[in-house]
Specification:
It contains 3 helices and 5 strands. It has helices spanning 5-17, 22-29, 35-41, and strands at residues 32-33, 42-48, 51-56, 62-68, 73-79.
């Protein structure tokens, strides 16, 4: 049983109800990545919408990013 599922479903619905443009997401969260940019900077090690667990290629730092479905952008990197 995933105790986070209900909360994550609410977050997914909120994020994707009115998806942000790249510019809006950048203004709110800082750096934003599309899928190609994400694969250059990170190795994805896990997925649990609206989060991906990643390892940053430049320094090996582990963390997570949030994402919206369409247009697909990743944002709000949080280092573990």
């Amino acid at each position: 049983m995933d105790e986070t599922e209900a909360a994550r479903r609410i977050m997914v619905a909120g994020i994707n109800e009115f998806p942000g443009s790249r510019e809006a997401l950048t203004a709110e969260h800082g750096q934003v990545w599309d899928t190609t940019e994400l694969s250059k900077d990170f190795e994805v090690t896990g997925f649990c919408a609206p989060f991906v667990v990643v390892k940053r290629k430049s320094d090996g730092a582990k963390g997570s990013l949030m994402f919206q479905h369409s247009p697909r952008f990743y944002f709000s990197f949080t280092k573990d």
